[in-house]
Structure formats: C-alpha cells, structure tokens
Fold each of these.
Amino acid sequence: MPKKPNLWFARDDRSPVKVDIAGLSKSYGSQSVLSDVSLEIKPGEIFVIMGPSGSGKSVLLRQIAGLETPTAGTVRINGLDPSLPDTRDRFALALVFQSGALFNSLSVYDNLALYPLEHRICPKGEIRDRVMHALRILSIESAAEKLPSELSGGMKKRVAIARALVMEPQLILYDEPTSELDPVMSATIAEIIATLKEQFTVTTIVVSHDRDLALTIADRVAVLHQGQLRAVQPPAELRRNTDPVVNNFLNPQIDVRNPRFKQLEANS
C-alpha cells in the first residue's frame, strides 16, 4: 500500500467546507429519484452515502457538485448554491468520477496539468511541482508519461485522485471509488481516502455501495433507499440499527429455499 502522504501544498488558509442539504427532491420527468433529503455534512469529515443500486446516490452527488439543479429543495456549500457559476470561484471542489474520466489521448501528467494550465491557476513551474508531488503522494510518479490505456483500473483510480489533489480542494466528491476493483486494491483506495483526510484538511463525500469501505473510513454514513434517507449515523451506531431496510442492506441474506436459488444451483 502507498505511504501516507506528506502534503505541502500552500492553500491560502482555505478551510474545509460545510454542506447543507434541505428538503432536496429530484425528478426526471415523471420519475422521482430523490425525495425530501436533508443532510448536514460537517467541515472536515468523511461522509459516506451508500445504498443499493438505483437508490439515488450518484444523483445526489451531482446535486452537491452543482452539475444538476434539484427539482425542489436546496444544496448549499458554505451557504452558497454550487450550481451558480460565481459560486465555483469561492471554494475549491474536486470530483473523482467512477470511471476516472481521464483523457485517453493525454499522458497521465498532461491529464493532471490540463485544468490548471487552461485556467492559469499558477505558473507552469508550480503546476509541474504540484502535479509531480500529487503523483508521488499516490505512489504513481512512474506513470507520469503513460497513457490511461496503459494503466490498470486501480492505477486509473489513483490518477483521478491525484488530479483532484492538484486543485488543492476544500471538498472532494468520490463517486464509487472502489467499483470494479479487487478487494486488495479496494482496501488501498479506502486507505488513501482516509489518509488524505488526515493530512489534507478537506471535507470528503463518498458515494459507494461498498459496505466495508463505508464502515471503515466514514465519520458518518447515510443510507439511501428508493430515494429516501433511512439512516444517518456513525458506523458503530449504524451496525446496531434495527431498521429492516438498513439491516438487510448491511447484512444481506440468501434464502436457499427460494425456487430461483434452487434452479441456479441445479444448473451450476
């Protein structure tokens, strides 16, 4: 596993942000995806949003990132609406996409340097320092000149996280950071997320269906089911939650008496 990072990026006293979600609902046409979701995410905490596929996790993340606007209710980051263009200049937000969202025609280095170069965030020499240091933090500096197509799934995830660090974020949003990874690499990514929170003062929101990741690294966990919040608790309390929906998600049971299971067993 990679060494714990020792971050030195100058951040101009930027502090981790607070995220407030009040009465948020989101529909696409007649399909309701989120219903009356309210959350308060504290500055500097790791907050994991989990639930089964189709529960609205990634849709909620897009509202927080300002990529979409709610049908009803509000999202506020330090009191500001993230969907407004002027708001994005007031705090640093980074989104780590599930797929990595890397440009296949650019090297790893160029993927990390693209945004700060295009937006002239700092001089080229400083950008190079930031990029190379971010790669060292994730133990992937040797991949700087490689193309994304030459990387494994786990390496692509690390590159995506390194790209987020180049922006010196106050808020990092992760969308399914351990999807399609083996258990060892999933544990590595979980350790990276937890370590970055310790060393890099940042608010972290993780969308995941990975129970082990959530219960290991989170300060608090929200469980979504069919677009509604069923629980918001620290991991230790969530393990004791008696809500059957929450309990079934955390501890799924296979009914061997189910005719479908017996048919699958007969065909195997």
Note: The two ends are 37 Å apart (CA to CA).
Amino acid sequence: MKEAGKLLGWSSVVFGMRLTGAFAVLATQVLLARWMGAEQLGVYVLAFSWLIMLSTIVGLGYPMASMRIVGKALHEARPGLIRGFLHRGRMVTVGVGSMAALLAGVVVLSLSGVFDAMQQRVFLVALLAVPVLAAMRMHERVAQAQGWFFLAMAPNMLLRPLLFLLAVFLIHRLGGGLDAWDAMSAHVLLIVTMAVAHLLLFRQRMAVTLTPAAREYDDAGWRKIALPLLIVTLFSQYFADMDIAIVGLLLRPDELALYNSGYRIALIISFGFLAINAVLMPRVSRLYAAGDTTAIQQVVRQATLLTSAGAILAMVVLFYWGREILALFGDEFVAAYGAMLILAGSQLVLAIVGPVATLLSVTGHQLLCLRVFLWSLLALVLFSVVFTLLAGIEGAALAVLLVNLLWTLWLRASVREVMRVEPSLLSLLPSRPAAV
C-alpha cells in the first residue's frame, strides 16, 4: 500500500502538470485555428512535428538511456559516471543536432517546388531549435533519473505550453494578425530562453546534490544501450509527432490541421499513463537491479489498472462530447470526429496492454524493442501511405491503430518471457501465470 501511495502521489503531480500543459496546448491550437485558419495551422503543425522528431533523433538515444545508466550509477554510488555520461550526452545532442539542422535546412531550401516561400521560412526557423531542444531534453532525462520530477517535467510539460499560449495571445492582441511564421518564431524564441534558464537551474541542482568526482566514460557501453533506445523513444513517447510528420507529407495543410486537432484531443487519454510511467521508470530500474520481480509485478499491476481506468473514462467522454470539443477549433474541424475516435482507440490499446516499452527499456532489454519497432516503423510508413491515400484522415488514424496493436502485443509477449511480469490488465487475474 505504501508503494501504491507513492506511485499515485507522484503520478498525480506529474499528471496534473501534463493535463494542465495539454489543455494549454489545446487552447493554443484552438486560438491558432480560429485566428490564422486551418491552412496556416497545418503549415505550423508540420514544421513543429519535424522539430520534435529531429530533436529526438539527434540525441541518438542518450536522453532515454539516462533512465538506466544514471539509475545504475546511483545504485553503485558512482557520481563520476553520471558526470561523464552527462558530458558525453551534451556533446552528442548539440553536435549532431547542429549538423542535422544544417543538413535539413539545405534539403528544405532545395524543395522549392514542394514548399512555398512561407513554408520554407517556417521550417528554417524551426530547425534553429533542434540542437537546443535536444540538449534540454538530455538535462530533463538526467534530472528525471535522479527523481527530480519538477525540474524534469515542469519546463516542457507545463511552463512552455502555458507561456506559448500567452505569447500567441499577446502577438494577436498587439499585432492584429497571426500566421505560421509568427507562431513558430515565438515558439523557437521561447524554447531557447527556457533551455538557458533550465540549464542554470540544472547545474545548480547537480552541484548541490551530486558528489564531486572525476568524469568516467563508457562510450562503447553507452552506445550499445542508447542507439537501440532511439527507435524505442520515437515509438513510446513521440509517436504522434512522428506520425504527423509522415502523414503531413501526404495531406494538404488544412487536412493536416484537422487530423492534428483530432489526434491532440485523443492524446488526452495517454496523459495518465505517461505521467505514471514517468514515475515508474526509475523505480522499476532500481527494483530490477535488486532482482525484486515480485515488487515490479505489483507496481506494474497498479500502474496498468490506474491508466486503463482513466483511458476508458476519457474514451467515453470523447464518444459523447467529441464533436463539441472539435467545434471549438471551428466548424470545419468537426469532420475529424471519426479520425479522433479511431485515434482514441489506439491510445486505449496502449493503456490496457501496459507499459511494455518502458519495462524493457529500463531493464536492459531494449534490443528486443528495437526489432519490433523497426518493423513497426516500416508498417507505419506503409500503412500511412496506403490508408491515407485511400481514406484520408480516417485512413491515417486506422494506420496508427493497427501499428499500436502490432507493437504493443508483440512487446507484451517479450515482457512476459524475459521479465516474468504480466504488464497488461490480465495481471488482475490471479490464476493467470506471469510467464509464457
């Protein structure tokens, strides 16, 4: 009961921040849709989704690897290893991020026949934030691995959405007009400012908390852990942005705006289990290092029960009041109701099957995820192209549902085999064995 109380307590705090930030994002998109129209919103959404995806890729898995590497270093009382890993992670995110942004900029400029001048300018200013956001994510993950949940979650989860909402309101109020260029420029400026402030706070917390020690490096070992986690991270945490970045190349900007609005509303379902998983990751890492499978099963069972209950409740709300919620963006956005329900169903699948990717990632079994996610990535591209061309935004949503079913059920079998843990709601059945 004590573990359940801690899990629920911290998860409630993280959930509150995520929910507040999510409503700020939705409110911002409602204002953007009403003030600059579906087409301009689609241009902004596509560029920002590529910013999110590229800033994740350039980290080469180092931010996500923090959960395991820092957790193990804390368990072994090796502060030098944490300092060395942080230093290497910064070099990777900033160095690779800068090169990727430059290369992507050249590609965007060469596609003048695909993107008009406005789209190119929006993409180029978005690319400026790629290495900055990547480095900030590295600091957040290291903070999260040490249990500094406010420092890890509050900046990007809560403060940035709220401040961007305020910025959009002020730009429209003072300037009288708003387009994709205005919105993206303001967002990039905000990201850079927050990254600098976050770095100062992070360095101060590290200096006070972490014992001084010479840096230790294990580059070969870190790469072995980090690189597979790159694909894992894209699927487990940035799947929506990756999907929108792909689908956005197949849809008109106004269609993408409708699809994105339905997707963002459906993602409300995921906030509960993402919040719980954020607290679950460092805890499972430590329990696994101690060999306590029984405790892991207990914590995972409680987490899956909480997330599934919340997901089912959210699904009911969207079924009955989804059209009214979509109408907040504008009357034309109600056309995304069918796609929104399909996407909501895909999130319900994630909640019921359980935190399979998280469990494998933080316990050293990320290579099992790699093969699954590589095949799932191929399936996402293939299904998205075929179904989007055949059925528009509903087809794109169906592709997401099928891919989520594919990788979650595949990884559930892996969790049961290698960890002897049942991650899904079936763990509530005491007569069902945990291992295959």
Note: Residues 38 and 406 are 32 Å apart (CA to CA).
